[in-house]
């Protein structure tokens, strides 16, 4: 690891100031950044610790919740209002990493975490356009079981690793950021970028900006949950995960929100499937047909073609569970 | 500028690159916390920060300024073992012992999480009291790997201590 300076920010303005210019990085729990520094993927010259900024979880005037960026993942999942009003968010966080890591990791850091693609992490042994733009992609012809089936590009097929962000996408969360040029709010579905020709540009955050809070609108589903399918029962990244919320009235779908993890370079909000299902019957045939539509543009690879059927079956199982009479 | 480690104040290292795990092992010679993967995948370095379990390999020591850290050395001793240490011995909760300090630190914090009503991914109802079960313990301890495969004994030991505490 290269020598690095360390400062603790005591306010948002101070954090912005400290991080301005140079090769600075904001430090949350460090569960991703410290690991990437050790591997040589990240080489910051300075670290600005932002874990002292707001970690409050409070109700908004419109009846939603505002979560400070420094809130620990475990604190969000344990929060009573999140458990009772946004079960998909609590479950998505509980499905991620281990209890130790959830105690350390912050909400802001979770949004900013980088792909777990093994080729991205292998500085000495692999080419990666995300890590070293223009160098090539060894994942495309390599072991791509964990890679994207939709939204990828010839330059990069890596997936976004977060579980929490998948639920935030289905919930229409809004990311509040502050920076040298003022404050703004970015809808979660626009926050992460698709790779295109520049996979190294991962989010809409600009230099000099930091995440201050995540805003969650009032609950709009009668029921919601998160299901994660992986190679072992716990403590593994998703092959496919589904965050879904549903309101069914008299057999018809009144409100629905669906997002996938493990299949795309960003949390994949299934707008097409939602549109196809809204107002229609809550039947397994309808669920399957809607997803076939959503994944019509999928470009699976030899190592991950199974994810198409896995996504279909997982979504269908989750929606069936949510539309059933048993909770 | 100090970190309280097992009740004693220790100076924060000048070099920001020093992990909490390296501070414990290399500078303080508290070698109970183990280096397994050194990348957050195995749990062998698990310690408690202000009573909550964390990975010391991914924690920069400078971030611990003002915090209180407990390692396996602070949890129990040969003369006065923690209830979990006794239970691990009774249930063969280890073979080589390398993962054991991390397992026991993790389990100690985990029992408090259950007592506080914090749910896990396998908890059926997120708002009901948590019932201790084999499935709950397996899910909650999944961040600690044992390559000898002593997991069954580990779960038995933890379930026994949980039952003793509830009694």
From TrEMBL, chain A:
Residues 1-221 form the FAD-binding PCMH-type domain. PROSITE patterns: FAD_PCMH. One of its GO terms (molecular function) is oxidoreductase activity. Pfam families: CO_deh_flav_C, FAD_binding_5. It comes from Reyranella soli. Keywords: FAD, Flavoprotein. SUPFAM superfamilies: CO dehydrogenase flavoprotein C-terminal domain-like, FAD-binding/transporter-associated domain-like. This is Dehydrogenase.
TrEMBL record, chain B:
It holds the Pfam family Fer2_2. Coiled coil: none annotated. Residues 1-75 form the 2Fe-2S ferredoxin-type domain. Keywords: 2Fe-2S, Iron, Iron-sulfur, Metal-binding, Oxidoreductase. PROSITE patterns: 2FE2S_FER_1 (PS00197), 2FE2S_FER_2 (PS51085). The keyword Metal-binding applies. SUPFAM superfamilies: 2Fe-2S ferredoxin-like, CO dehydrogenase ISP C-domain like. One of its GO terms (molecular function) is 2 iron, 2 sulfur cluster binding. PANTHER family: OXIDOREDUCTASE, IRON-SULPHUR BINDING SUBUNIT-RELATED-RELATED (PTHR45331). This is Aldehyde dehydrogenase iron-sulfur subunit. It comes from Reyranella soli.
């Amino acid at each position: 690891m290269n020598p690095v300076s360390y400062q603790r920010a005591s306010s948002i303005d101070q954090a912005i100031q400290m991080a301005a210019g140079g090769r600075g990085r904001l430090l949350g729990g460090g569960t991703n950044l410290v690991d990437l520094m050790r591997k040589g993927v990240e080489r910051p010259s300075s670290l600005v610790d932002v874990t002292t900024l707001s970690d409050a979880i409070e109700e908004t005037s419109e009846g939603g919740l505002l979560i400070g960026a420094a809130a620990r993942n475990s604190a969000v999942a344990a929060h009573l209002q999140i458990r009772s009003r946004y079960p998909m968010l609590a479950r998505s966080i509980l499905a991620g990493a281990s209890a130790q890591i959830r105690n350390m990791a912050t909400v802001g850091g979770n949004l900013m975490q980088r792909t777990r693609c093994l080729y991205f992490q292998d500085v000495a042994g692999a080419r990666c356009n995300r890590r070293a733009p223009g160098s090539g992609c060894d994942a495309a012809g390599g072991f791509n079981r964990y890679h994207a089936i939709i939204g990828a590009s010839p330059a990069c097929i890596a997936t976004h690793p977060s579980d929490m962000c998948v639920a935030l996408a289905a919930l229409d969360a809004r990311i509040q950021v502050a920076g040298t040029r003022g404050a703004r709010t970015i809808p979660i579905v626009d926050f992460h970028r698709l790779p295109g020709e520049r996979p190294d540009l991962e989010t809409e955050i600009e230099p000099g900006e930091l995440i201050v809070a995540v805003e969650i609108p009032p609950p709009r589903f009668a029921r919601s949950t998160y299901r994660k399918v992986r190679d072992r029962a716990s403590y593994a990244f998703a092959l496919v995960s589904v965050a879904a919320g549903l309101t069914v009235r008299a057999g018809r779908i009144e409100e629905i929100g669906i997002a996938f993890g493990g299949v795309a370079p960003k949390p994949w909000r299934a707008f097409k499937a939602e549109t196809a299902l809204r107002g229609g019957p809550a039947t397994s045939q309808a669920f399957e047909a809607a997803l076939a539509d959503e994944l019509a543009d999928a470009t699976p690879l030899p190592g991950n073609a199974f994810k198409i059927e896995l996504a279909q079956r997982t979504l269908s199982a989750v929606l069936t569970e949510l539309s059933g009479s048993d909770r | 500028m100090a970190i309280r480690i097992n009740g004693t104040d220790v100076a924060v290292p000048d070099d920001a690159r020093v992990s909490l795990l390296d501070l414990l092992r290399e500078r303080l010679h508290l070698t109970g916390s183990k280096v397994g993967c050194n990348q957050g995948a195995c749990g062998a370095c698990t310690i408690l920060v202000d009573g909550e379990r964390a990975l010391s390999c991914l924690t920069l020591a400078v971030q611990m300024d003002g915090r209180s850290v407990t390692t396996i050395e602070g949890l129990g001793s040969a003369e006065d073992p923690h209830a979990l240490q006794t239970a691990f011995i009774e249930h063969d909760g280890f073979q080589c012992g390398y993962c054991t300090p991390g397992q026991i630190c993790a389990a100690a914090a985990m029992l408090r999480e259950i007592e506080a009503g914090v749910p896990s991914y396998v908890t059926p109802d997120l708002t009901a009291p948590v019932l201790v079960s084999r499935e709950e313990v397996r899910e909650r301890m999944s961040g600690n790997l044992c390559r000898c495969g002593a997991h069954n004994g580990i779960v038995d030991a933890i379930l026994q201590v949980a039952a003793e505490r509830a009694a």
